[in-house]
Design brief:
The protein is mainly alpha-helical. It has one domain. 56% of the residues lie in helices and 5% in strands. The protein contains eight helices and six strands; from the N terminus they run ααβββαααβαββαα. The strands form three sheets. The protein has a two-stranded antiparallel ribbon with strand order 1-2. A two-stranded parallel sheet has the order 3-4. Helix 1 runs parallel beside helix 8, helix 3 runs antiparallel to helix 5 and helix 6 runs antiparallel to helix 8. The N and C termini lie far apart (68 Å).
Length: 293
């Protein structure tokens, strides 16, 4: 007989209460992050809109020629455009590798995002695995997962890990494994099998809501290696597989439930979508920060 039918009503109510509490906690954190992203992105986008240009007076040609005769060295030489400073240039995108050297807020790896991705060739299977490996084990990831593990321990999420140094080490290892497994499934394994492009091609033009809608849609629509748009199986299916692997393998046995798996998958999909929105507006934020610098 299935053990689920032997569950007492009291235990069932207690389990449902834990699930509701977990979902409320996840929803609260998700809404807080979404609000923060919205404020940062909308502020940066509004401040980077070009102001109305005022016409510059054009001096009279006859007066200019009469007052300032052209020197022999400058008479017929065309003026060259001023070279763009290094600070104003976007991060280099490798034309041979098809990836970038960009970092979100100058720290977090953003190697699968292209600011100008028109006409770039598709990635090979080796390139997909190489760029995911490069980003998953980047030096920034180690303190980043340490920070996330500290938050998890402070909230006592997944109590089966316990507290103290042992509990923190378990949370750190599971967080690192969760991120790495999802990165490889959504960015290398499934894109190679399904022949989909794991890169995010920034739109970079249009209004705020138009660009936001485009960024959100990339969680559900992606570009195939052939260049055609199709359903983003790599993100949707890869996230679900990653949630299932992590939940039913090295996470505490008390959390190995279907509702928890669905919650983890939904939370990860939501965070990935928010990150994609940040990636869309990151060039605007980067130019604003560098201009202030």
């Amino acid at each position: 007989m299935n053990p689920i039918f032997l569950t007492s009503p009291k235990l069932e109510r207690r389990t449902n209460g834990k699930v509701v509490t977990m979902l409320c906690r996840v929803a609260g954190r998700f809404c807080a992050v979404a609000l923060l992203v919205f404020l940062v992105v909308s502020s940066a986008f509004a401040q980077t809109q070009p102001a109305a240009s005022t016409p510059t007076p054009v001096p009279d040609a006859a007066a200019g020629s009469a007052s300032q005769p052209a020197s022999p060295s400058q008479g017929n030489q065309p003026q060259k455009d001023q070279p763009q400073t290094k600070m104003d240039q976007p991060p280099t995108s490798g034309t041979s590798s098809g990836t970038s050297n960009d970092r979100l807020f100058f720290t977090l790896p953003n190697f699968l995002t292209l600011e100008h991705g028109q006409g770039v060739p598709p990635l090979t299977a080796g390139q997909k695995f190489k760029v995911v490996l490069r980003g998953s084990f980047d030096y920034v990831q180690y303190p980043w997962y340490g920070f996330l593990s500290g938050i998890s321990q402070a909230e006592n999420s997944e109590p089966g890990y316990g507290q103290g140094a042992t509990g923190y080490a378990k949370r750190y290892g599971s967080a690192f494994a969760d991120g790495t497994i999802e990165n490889f499934l959504t960015g290398a394994v499934l894109p190679t099998v399904l022949r989909q492009d794991p890169r995010f091609f920034q739109l970079g033009k249009g209004g705020f809501w138009h660009r936001t809608g485009y960024a959100i849609s990339r969680s559900f629509v992606t570009r195939a290696d052939s260049g055609k748009e199709q359903l983003n199986y790599s993100e949707l299916l890869g996230g679900a597989l990653a949630a299932g692997i992590s939940t039913y393998s090295y996470h505490p046995s008390a959390d190995r439930t279907l509702p928890n798996t669905v919650s983890v998958w939904g939370t990860q999909l939501g965070y990935d979508t928010l990150t994609t929105v940040i990636k869309e507006f990151w060039p605007d934020i980067r130019r604003k920060l560098r201009k202030q610098h």
